[in-house]
Write a structure and sequence with these properties.
Strand content: 35-45%
Radius of gyration: 17 Å
Shape: elongated
Oligomer: single chain
Number of helices: 3
Strand order of the largest sheet: 2-1-5-4-3
Length: about 160
């Protein structure tokens, strides 16, 4: 069974939040693989995906929102392979359940964080590649349940 990842964006203590962010980054680095089709085509770059994290910790939706793949027109199948790999790992993410909101203000101020970590240990067969992964979080309150439904933008850099 996969571990429940901390909802680091909800942690008030900055040291605790950074530790929890590192747990997320390690998990992501461990499971993502550079698609062979993209590697063979020399396609790399940064992909951004918007995740909806439900109150129970499951990912409820994923959409690729942006691709920064460099100049030129990369082969469509290679781009689709990158998209599919990011989505495959993102669908596996499980976060700890959200705690019910105790505030009574229905106009909660969104929380936001932007985190990037250098990653140099991703490999595909015998080739070494450098990657970056990151997270940007916007906290959205569901007024009916007073639980957090978070939208999280993750990004990952695949580098040939």
């Amino acid at each position: 069974m996969l571990p429940l990842l901390p909802r680091f964006w909800q942690l008030a203590d900055s040291a605790e939040r950074m530790d929890a962010t590192e747990v997320f980054s390690q998990y992501f680095r461990h499971f993502i693989q550079y698609p062979a089709l993209a590697l063979q085509a020399g396609v790399g770059g940064t992909l951004y995906a918007l995740l909806t994290v439900l109150p129970d910790g499951r990912v409820g939706g994923i959409s690729i929102t942006r691709r920064d793949l460099g100049a030129g027109a990369p082969p469509v199948k290679a781009v689709m392979a990158l998209d599919a790999e990011l989505q495959r790992v993102a669908w596996q993410l499980r976060f700890k359940p959200a705690l019910p909101r105790t505030d009574t203000d229905s106009t909660a101020i969104p929380a936001s964080t932007d985190i990037a970590a250098e990653i140099t240990d991703i490999t595909d067969q015998t080739e070494s590649v450098e990657s970056n992964d990151g997270i940007e979080v916007t906290d959205v309150t569901d007024a009916g349940t007073r639980s957090a439904v978070d939208t999280v933008t993750i990004f990952y850099r695949f580098g040939p």
